[in-house]
Design brief:
- The chain is mainly beta.
- Helix content is 6%, strand content 25%.
- Among the domains are: 69 residues, no CATH class; 71 residues, no CATH class; 65 residues, no CATH class.
- The chain has a 4-stranded antiparallel beta sheet with strand order 30-29-32-31, with no helix packed on it.
Length: 721
């Protein structure tokens, strides 16, 4: 991998979007007309944060309603955010049976399906209804499943993902040295991209590796330019930074960028706000930057095809509002807007056991299958008959396998218990579970690589013992080497092998007697010093280092305690053990009375205070000023303490739509999150590949087909299957 995943997926988005959405003439103008110039005072909107060469990334508009306007300096012209709406559905324009004559239908009926299903080949639409209590309609497979609600349930280690019930989850960042694979939401080895790889020109930026708090310095801009940290781009410097760039009026910039809301670049290193959305709408809800739109409809409403009214979710029992009708229409019981109507099954429903029918009120109504004797719901087949799906507990009891037929057009996976393996290796084949042998129960006293009884091997160790194997054998038996037990300078032998007892194996305070090859205990020194104690093997010389505050008396060869100075300085103290010269330590100074005094400090005694000529407690004075730009002291009189304050303190509102750590205008810093700006839950810091900016990057198809959730409030068309 030579480029980061961030770069790889960005390029994939560009190529896929351009091939689907633009004709050859548009491609040539979009990809080849970059002039690299920047006009004073702004220009066209630059789309989303992940753009390269002025080409906005398809499906990457959901960056909290912001786009970069008028920079044009990144390898090409700015490009217009209006040129790419962020709605990947446009790629499917005209995609009908005549467009792909060789494709094979994926869905031909509602067998084992739920929700609103559209076949990507034929374009035929099916309303397959909801699911039984305790299950939910999976957004991608359109099958009723036991809800997977958490990141752990979904096997997601990182990134953002939508659970079975349509709730967006933030599964966090990867650790140092790892990056998040957007296709699998797992942490993989980091490919270490550079600022240049990601198109960042300046300022601090997160490059996709490790947690988002780890930013890298992408350098500074040339003279006459400043870094727009919201987009990591160099732009002409305004007068406040010694330049000549004068931003155009906000209305002019927003109109040129077709921006209805959110923030865009002012072309001079800053940003401007293009207003708020009308009541009932929000910015970039469908993943389109700087565009107002209605809030995204709850997944439960989509599954039930409801236009209005309230419904209760199968996940957690939460009640969702599916919207309201425009008068004179009313919300009927089927969740459809229209004239007052009572939904009912048509007469044709009496001829079949189940199915989905027109309810006579511009909606659909389901005739459900009865519950099985065990309480589970039967599924409705295309011919209107009910079918009880096979289960692992009853129909495949004692068997195992993946992709086993459930007898109703779908499949079921039957797994073995922990410690067992399935004999079936092919999807659709049923096998039997084989319990692997256990080292403790089946191979006690044996070691090495052994048969697990199920066609594989198991590795068994010996713990603190030694594994003895015959030459060329993969397994053996556990045995114990002979212990030294106080012996040294010798080698011991038994049937298990050799044990070397070295001269240094006796341990602390012991020595090896090479005459007897046995360990002996050294004689204790006690208070003795500078003298040899003990005889023979136990004899050794005691150190003259008696420890802190002591010395070795050369006459008696014993350790004695020296006198202590206390607070005395520039003098000496004496006792029978010796004499000590006294001095002050650390920051203490010696006073005229030969005692030490530690002066008061601004960071200690006067912490949080300020003033001039404050008493230092040792006969002198100290000045304690205020740190940080703009901070001033509340007191000016000598030897009077005050407090520091800053009248120019900044807040997160002064850094619109930005996230991370910023200067607070007073020499300190403040941390801003996307929640501090009141942005949608799916907007995260750096989520649109712009480091330090709140946004949302649409999900890749990742092998999926049809219209699937893009993770940013809209859908992406992944084409035919």
């Amino acid at each position: 991998m030579t480029k980061s995943l961030t770069r790889k997926h960005a390029l994939r988005r560009i190529c896929g979007a351009l091939s689907l959405l633009f004709a050859a003439a548009v491609l040539s103008s979009a990809c080849g007309s970059g002039n690299g110039s920047t006009v004073e005072g702004g220009g066209n909107s630059g789309g989303s944060a992940g753009e390269d060469g002025g080409i906005p990334l398809a499906g990457n508009g959901g960056n909290a309603g912001n786009s970069a306007a008028g920079t044009g300096a990144r390898n090409g012209s700015g490009g217009s955010s209006a040129g790419m709406t962020g709605s990947d559905e446009a790629g499917a324009a005209g995609a009908g049976p005549g467009l792909l004559p060789d494709c094979q239908p994926v869905y031909t009926s509602c067998d084992s399906l739920c929700g609103a299903v559209t076949d990507p080949c034929t374009g035929k639409h099916f309303d397959c209804g909801g699911c039984a209590d305790g299950t939910a309609c999976d957004r991608d497979t359109h099958q009723c499943v036991t809800p997977k609600l958490t990141c752990k349930d979904l096997g997601a280690e990182c990134g953002r993902i939508r659970n079975t019930c349509g709730v967006r989850l933030d599964c966090g960042d990867c650790a140092d040295g790892k990056e998040c694979d957007p296709d699998t939401n797992t942490c993989i080895a980091c490919s270490n991209p550079t600022c240049q790889d990601l198109g960042f020109e300046c300022g601090p930026a997160w490059l996709g590796c490790g947690p988002r708090t780890e930013s890298h310095d992408c350098g500074s801009c040339a003279a006459g330019s400043v870094c727009n940290v919201a987009y990591n781009r160099c732009e002409p410097a305004p007068a406040s930074a010694g330049g000549k760039c004068v931003p155009k009026a906000t209305a002019t910039l927003c109109t040129a960028a077709s921006a209805e809301c959110g923030y865009i670049s002012d072309g001079c290193g800053g940003t401007v706000k293009c207003g708020d959305c009308p009541l009932g709408q929000s910015c970039a809800t469908d993943g389109v930057a700087n565009r107002c739109g209605p809030p995204e409809q709850p997944w439960e409403c989509i599954v039930e095809q409801r236009e209005c009214g309230k419904t209760t979710a199968t996940c957690g029992g939460k009640t969702y509002d599916c919207g309201s009708c425009t008068k004179p229409d009313v919300c009927n019981a089927n969740g459809k807007c229209g004239a007052p109507c009572s939904p009912a099954l048509p007469p044709a429903a009496a001829d079949v056991a189940c199915g989905v029918f027109d309810d006579g009120c511009n909606g659909k109504i389901s005739k459900d299958c009865p519950a099985t004797p065990k309480g589970t719901k039967e599924v409705c087949k295309a011919d209107g008959s009910c079918c009880a799906p096979k289960t692992c507990a009853d129909d495949y009891k004692g068997q195992c396998g993946v992709g086993l037929s459930d007898g109703c057009g779908s499949t079921v996976d039957c797994n073995c218990d922990t410690g067992s393996v399935c004999s079936a290796k092919t999807s659709g084949d049923a096998g039997s579970c084989c319990k692997k042998k256990d080292c403790t129960a089946d191979y006690a006293g044996q070691c090495g690589t052994l048969d697990d009884g199920c066609g594989g091997t198991i590795s068994c160790g010996c713990g603190s013992q030694t594994c003895k194997k015959a030459a060329g054998s993969a397994s053996g038996s556990c045995c114990s080497l002979e212990a030294c037990n106080g012996q040294c300078n010798t080698t011991l032998h038994n049937d298990c092998g050799d044990t070397t007892c070295s001269k240094t194996s006796c341990g602390s305070n012991k020595a090896c007697d090479t005459t007897s090859d046995m360990c002996c205990t050294l004689a204790a020194c006690g208070t003795s010093c500078g003298v040899t104690v003990g005889t023979g093997c136990s004899a050794h010389t005691c150190s003259t280092n008696c420890g802190k505050g002591k010395t070795c008396d050369p006459g008696s060869h014993t350790c004695c305690t020296l006198p202590t100075c206390g607070t005395a300085c520039n003098t000496s103290v004496t006792n029978s053990c010796g004499t000590v010269q006294c001095s002050c330590t650390g920051t203490a100074t010696c006073q005229a009375n030969n005692t030490c005094c530690t002066p008061r400090t601004c960071g200690g005694y006067y912490s949080g205070k300020c003033g001039t000529k404050l008493d230092d407690g040792c006969g002198g004075t100290i000045d304690c000023g205020c740190s940080g730009t703009g901070n001033v002291c509340s007191k000016t009189a000598a030897n009077t303490t005050g407090t520091c304050s800053c009248p120019t303190l900044l807040t997160c509102a002064d850094y619109p739509n930005q996230c991370g750590s910023f200067q607070n205008g007073c020499g300190g810093s403040l941390t801003c999150t996307c929640a501090d700006h009141g942005l949608p839950a799916y907007d995260t810091c750096g989520g649109s590949a712009q480091s330090g900016v709140c946004g949302c990057t649409k999900a890749e198809c990742g092998g999926r087909c049809g219209k699937v959730d893009d993770g940013c409030g809209g859908q992406v068309d992944c084409g035919p299957c």
